[in-house]
Amino acid sequence: MNTKIKYSPDYIFESSWEVCNKVGGIYTVLSSRANSLQKEHKDKVIFIGPDIWNKNESPWFKEDASLHKEWRQHADLTDHLSVRVGRWQVPGEPITILVNFESFYQHKNDIYGQMWRLFGVDSMPSYGDYDDSSMFAYAVGNVIESFYKFHKLQNKHVIAHFNEWMLGMGALYVKHNVPKIATIFTTHATSIGRSIAGNNLPLYKNFKEFDGDQMARELNMVSKHSIEKITAHNVDCFTTVSDITARECEQLLEKKPDVVTPNGFEKGFIPKKGDYTKLRTQARSTLIRVTEALLGYPVATKSLLVALSGRYEYKNKGIDVFVDSLNKLRSNKSLKKDIVAFIMVPAWVKEYRDDLQLRLQEKGPISANRALDCPFLTHNLHEPENDPLLSQIKRLGFTNTKEDRVKIIFVPSYLNGDDGIFNASYYDLLIGLDATVFPSYYEPWGYTPHESIAFSIPTVTTSLSGFGTWAIKMGDTEGIGDGVEVVHRVEDNYDEVVNKIGDALVDLSQKNKKEIEETRDAALNLADSADWEHFIGYYKEAYCKALHNSIDRLSGAHAVDE
What we know:
By secondary structure, the chain is an alpha/beta fold. It has helices at 25-41, 69-77, 108-119, 130-150, 168-177, 191-198, 212-218, 222-234, 243-253, 273-295, 319-329, 354-360, 388-396, 426-430, 447-454, 466-473, 494-510, 513-528, 532-561, and strands at residues 11-15, 45-50, 61-63, 82-88, 95-100, 158-163, 182-187, 237-240, 259-260, 304-309, 339-344, 349-352, 379-381, 406-411, 435-437, 459-462, 484-487. The longest helix is centred in the C-terminal third of the chain and has 30 residues, at 532-561. It is globular.
C-alpha cells in the first residue's frame, strides 16, 4: 500500500458518555471541536451519546424528527434499537444520536462472555459505573453497525471514534462485526493512572516501577483497566491528549499512542469584543454581590478575584496546595490588593442557601451588617463536617472577616445557570475574574487553564498538566506577565509550589492598569495558538492513520484467507 496517500474520512462517528451530557472536561473537548468537524465534513460527522434523560430533556440536545427518518424506523423495527436523532446545541450544531441502552442489560452476561472469548476483556470483578458504560458502549457499536449497513457505506471511508474506557466495548464490537470501519480510541486519562494518583501513591516518583496490571489488581480497577488496555491494543489508531499522558499510556497500558491530539478550544464560546467589557463588568458585579451577601460587608472593588474550578479531586487538582498558598498570603506584606478566592468544584451539594438567596433578593446595595453562618459556603452540603475543603479552611483558621486580606468562597454547585445563587454559567463568571489557579498534581490536559486564557484571564498551572507542558514548549517564561505561569511540580516540592503560587498572585496585585492589560493580552495571544483552527490537524492525522491501518489490516486478512 502507498503510505503517502492522504486518506480522509467520508463519515465520522464519534461517541462519548459526555455527548449532550455535561459531566467534565471531555464535554468541552467534543463540544468545542464539533464546529471544526462540522465545517469540514458537514453532516457526515455524527456524535452518539447516552439517552439518559427521563423526566427532563437534555438542555444541550434538540430532537429533529426529520433527520434520518427512514433509518430511525429501520433501527427501531428491524434492529430493535431505541434512538433519537437531533442536533447538539453547540457551535456547528452537529447531528447527534442519543441511544437508550436499557434493553442491553438483559444480555449483559452474554455480552461480557463474548468480550472475554473474543478479546480477553475481564468483566468479572466489575462494579459501579462499569455496567452502565459497557452497555452504552455496546449499544453504540450496534447503532454504528445499523447506520453503516442501512446506508450501504461499505465503499466509503468510515471512522468510528470512541472516547475513554467507557466506550471501549463499542470499539471492540465494531472491530469484530464491521471490520471495514476504521476505529480510533482516545484515552483522556488512563483509569489506573488517575486511580494511583487519587490513592495518594507517588505516581511520578516511582513511575517506571509501576505495572498497570498489578496496580489494577491492588486498587480494585481490574475491569476498567482491562477494557481500556485491550481497546488501546486493538483499534486502528490509539490517541491521547498530551505528551505527559502518552508516557503514562506507554508505561501503564504498554501501548504508545499513535498520535497525540491536544485539546483545542472553540472561539465561538468567547464573547465578541463589543460584548466582552459589558459581560466582564456584569460577572464581577455578580461575584462581588454574592461575596458581600455572604460576608455581610462591602468588598473592596479593586480586590483580586481569583478562582480554582474543576472536579472535586482534592489532591489531583491541587485544591490542597491552593488553600495553603492562600493561607500564606494572609500575612504577606507585599500583597497590594485583597484577594477573594472562589473554589468552584461541585461537591455533595444539598441545595442553595435560603438565607443567602434572601439577601441577594434585596434591591440596591446589600444592607446586611453581619456575616451569615459559615461565611465560606454558597450552597448547603450533605455532611459538611466531612468535607475536606471546609475542614482545611477551619484547620488553618480562615475567618473571612473584613480584616482578613484573603477571603475564600466555596461554590460546591454545578454552574449551569440555575444554581439558585449565581444563576450564571461557569463561563459567564470566568470572564469576571482577574486570575485562575490550577496547581494540578494529576492533569492529563487541563481545560480549565486553557479556557481561562481563552477568556483573557491569566492563569497559574503546573508542569504536571498536559496544558502546562504544552505552554512550556511554546516558550513560557518565568512569572505571570506572559499570561501563564507554569510552576514546576514534582513529587516532593509541595512547599515550593505553594510559595510560587503566592508569588504569582502578589506579582499580579502589584501590576498597574497598563501591565494588567498587557498580561491579559499575552494570555489571549497564547490561547490563539491553542484553538481548534490549529489543533484539528492532529485529528486529521489520526483519521488518516486509522484509515491506513484499517486498509493494512484488511489486506492482511485477505492474504490469510487466500
